[in-house]
Design brief:
This protein has a domain of about 80 residues. Helix content is about 40%, strand content about 25%. An eight-stranded mixed β-sheet has the order 3-2-1-4-5-10-9-8, sandwiched between helices. Strand 4, helix 4 and strand 5 form a beta-alpha-beta unit.
Length: about 300
């Protein structure tokens, strides 16, 4: 096993990639001709004393995030506004900001300069904020913590698009205190056309993606790689594999729908269904060569190949 990892590490050292290939691939396979939901998040782990820290942008696709752009941060802790802007500009340059239906992000992705950039670029966003942030337009005359809005929840236990001023920016706060929740969900947006509380829930798709790349799927952290450049290249390879597995799972699920258990959850995910099928096909390639070729034809149709050349 160690020999395989060493050989793969040598491969990544010499391997060069163009991330625009991923954009083309994802666009063709997951319909980026239409407006899409963009999700930003970060995942990290440690190997020895080394921190592996990945900032990623994904598109939402039926409950899961599809990788689009990423950067391996050579540091510990949260991303900076500069790092987020640099990553988001790649999406804008390749696809245009008019294609972004909304950007979703958790409480880590806040700040005056960050919000200013999103507003100036006309990028709709829904971002969760900390409950102790001070805002205007909740009480007359002085700033109060944004969770002061909770006192006005009423029977529905939610507030939609309450106008506030945060860091000088006019935003719209939505609050929900779900039953049995430990704390309220408070999000802010720069627009009122979308149901912020509803759309914010789609942010979980990128967490599902991280599980597929890590512990519940490819287990990328088990490679023990620490070089940022190698990890970025590894993610390029795994993104292609992830897209292949997910599209294969979609095809199989259309032919034979995944059964639902008593607790109303699917017996297995679309990704797991596709990954298992590909793995079993490769293990018996001598007897399943026709199935393997069909998988390639489905994943790399002629129009995708022509687009990538």
């Amino acid at each position: 096993m160690n020999l395989v990892i060493e050989e793969f590490s040598d491969f990544l050292r010499a391997f060069l990639f163009d991330m625009s290939f991923i954009v083309i691939l994802v666009s063709k396979l997951f319909m980026l001709d239409e407006k899409f939901i963009l999700i930003m998040d970060r995942t990290n782990w440690k190997w020895g004393k080394k921190n592996i820290n990945i900032l990623m942008l994904s598109i939402e696709h039926f409950g899961i995030g599809i990788p689009l752009f990423w950067a391996v941060l050579n540091k510990d802790g949260s991303s900076s506004t500069k790092e987020r802007v640099k990553l988001l500009k790649k999406v804008i340059s390749k696809l245009g900001n008019e294609k972004i239906k909304v950007l979703l992000a958790d409480r880590e992705f806040i700040g005056d300069a960050w919000f200013k950039f999103l507003i100036e670029e006309n990028i709709p966003f829904i971002i969760r904020v900390k409950k102790n942030f001070l805002v205007d337009k909740v009480r007359n005359g002085y700033k109060v913590p944004i969770d002061t809005l909770i006192r006005n929840l009423g029977r529905k236990r939610k507030i939609i698009d309450h106008k506030v001023i945060l860091w000088g920016h006019v935003l719209y706060a939505s609050v929900e205190y779900a039953k049995n929740a430990k704390e309220p969900m408070i999000v802010v947006s720069n627009q009122t056309e979308l149901d912020s509380l509803y759309f914010y829930r789609w942010r979980w798709g990128i967490e599902t993606l991280f599980s597929c790349l890590k512990s519940r799927g490819f287990r990328m952290e088990d490679t023990h790689m620490t070089s940022p450049k190698k990890i970025e290249k590894l993610l390029f390879v795994l993104t292609i594999a992830f897209c292949w597995a997910h599209k294969t799972g979609e095809l199989l699920a259309r032919q034979n729908p995944i059964s639902t258990k008593k607790h109303k959850r699917k017996e297995k995910s679309v990704f797991r269904l596709g990954l298992t099928y590909i793995r079993l096909t490769l293990l018996r390639i001598d007897k399943k060569i026709d199935s393997f070729l069909s998988l390639l034809d489905y994943f790399f149709p002629d129009e995708v190949i022509r687009s990538c050349l």
